[in-house]
Amino acid sequence: MAALGWLTPRRRSATARSVLAGEASAEAARKSSQEATVSEISEDSSEEPEFPVLGDEKAAAFFDLDNTVMQGAALFHFGRGLYKRKFFETRDLARFAWQQAWFRLAGVEDPEHMQDARDSALSIVKGHRVSELMSIGEEIYDEYMAERIWPGTRALAQAHLDAGQKVWLVTAAPVEIAQVIARRLGLTGALGTVAESVDGVYTGKLVGEPLHGPAKAEALRALAAAEELDLSRCAAYSDSHNDIPMLSLVGHPYAINPDSKLRKHARKLDWRLRDYRTGRKAAKVGIPAAAGVGAVAGGTAAAIALHRRRR
Description:
The structure is a single chain. This protein has 311 residues and is of the alpha/beta class. It contains eleven helices and eight strands. It has two domains: 16-32 and 51-105 and 112-274, 3-Layer(aba) Sandwich (Rossmann fold); 278-310. It has helices at 14-32, 74-84, 90-106, 111-125, 130-145, 151-162, 175-184, 214-227, 244-247, 260-269, 289-310; strands at 60-63, 166-174, 189-193, 195-198, 201-206, 235-238, 252-256, 272-274. The radius of gyration is 19 Å and the shape is globular. GO terms for molecular function: hydrolase activity; metal ion binding.
């Protein structure tokens, strides 16, 4: 999708970029969506669960990806796979490793880290074909992502599918990665950050901005309008306070593995909470500090050793 000349980042307001990113993501998601299998509706309504409501075609569910559906950041795991395939050098892998470790320890999304990860990913895929990255994404899912899916969150998504509702991933990760994960999990589709491509080749630029924070809410609005959904009957799930705009749009918001700010907000508004992490205190969001430091040290040492062997 080629960006219009007058829609340059410098001349767009933050709100306009969010709207553009949301609309672009919704369009990409609708094009790639697959029809969810609708379960047969029992005639005995007294046995139906209160939520999700069986057969409610005006309802859908929206799931954040990183640390909500999957442990860690999808972009990091994708980066590992690209490194394995020699898309970039050791120093870039070390940066990916540090960003991932910081994300897991702090349990929040740092804007500077996200910007760095986004710029790195765009520079890496520039000049490659979209179809190539989609094919590689399938392999990377099996190698690094499949075993990191939270069973509890997966069960929540399946409950919506079993009720005959559509289920979408909504993530700042590239839409191509999100689509692969959604397809492999049997979900309806995915909304994600849309990278610009011309004739099927990445240009190294974005359409709008990353699907993050307010942009996710704009994407939900756009998709709900296109799908004729009633957001008051929909559900949304996330771990991050950055997704409060998205969670606030729906009638059934859930805080999943929440960071401290989202946990506080959810309790104040009586939102439902689910925490599928183990080996942590309730207030903790990341992995234990000792384990996190060990992971960083081990990953960095491995990267340095590999670099020395190649010299």
